[in-house]
Amino acid sequence: MSSYTKVSPSVSPTPSSPQLSPFLSRTSSNGSTGSQKRDAHLTATAKRQKFFRRLFKFRQMDFEYAFWQMIYLFVSPQKVYRNFQYRKQTKDQWARDDPAFLVLLTFWLCASSFGFTLALSLGFLGFIKFLLWVIFVDCIGVGLLIASLFWFISNRYMLINPPRGQDVEWGYAFDVHLNAFFPLLMILHFFQLPFLTYVINKDMFFSRFFGNTLWLLAIGYYIYITFLGYSALPYLKNTRTLLFPMTAVLLIYILSLILGWNFSWGLSQFYHDRVMDNNY
């Protein structure tokens, strides 16, 4: 994993730049702190409302750009965050304003859940329960916790003093989670799937080594892309500390090979027991 260097946005494909929200040009007439806070609150509310209004307007979504982001999250995630910097310059916000990435991610979640349903022989009802678990627990639920944690830590301990009115948007923190979650999903729910039954879920060292190495790669991607996301913000300091969890991950990986822990096998059993419980 190469170190990340903050540079100006590249000439990568980017969506068209709509006019800035009128909320962004509001200024306080009396300069009071309370008025500035109200304006900031209105701006955040307007951004959320705009995002959710576009959630089912598929013709307005830039799926080509979202698909480009997904590809580059694997081959060169730095370029994705250079385009986040471009969005800040053109639209005055770091978080996505186009739900196309979320829609495509939902499609991949559905497809991977169908594959796991076949591999684990869960049946139709099992597929529905598995899909709901993966979307609302694994992706959204865990994402809300992680995004809120990093949002709090970055705003509390990582802002450059003086902050000059800049802080980390919660929406951007959740976008960072989604960016990091996508490669993890593809590695553990797609690439691993053809090998799950006949290679990984066996009581052999090679099975354990192969499956746990995929976990190491997936979690490594998650940590690295999360690090890149917060390093892209020019008003944060000490972002390299976000790479420290890799040390613990490597230690757990080595212990798993020694002690015979097969993460994929354990996860398969967890999903199977969770979904099949009270199925009939």
From TrEMBL:
Residues 1-42 are annotated as: Disordered. Pfam families: UNC-50. Residues 1-25 have a biased composition (Low complexity). It comes from the Eukaryota. GO terms for cellular component: Golgi membrane. The chain crosses the membrane at residues 101-123, 130-153, 180-201, 213-236, 242-264. It is found in: Membrane. Keywords: Membrane, Transmembrane, Transmembrane helix. Residues 26-35 have a biased composition (Polar residues). The keyword Transcription does not apply. It is a multi-pass membrane protein. Belongs to the unc-50 family. This is Protein unc-50 homolog.
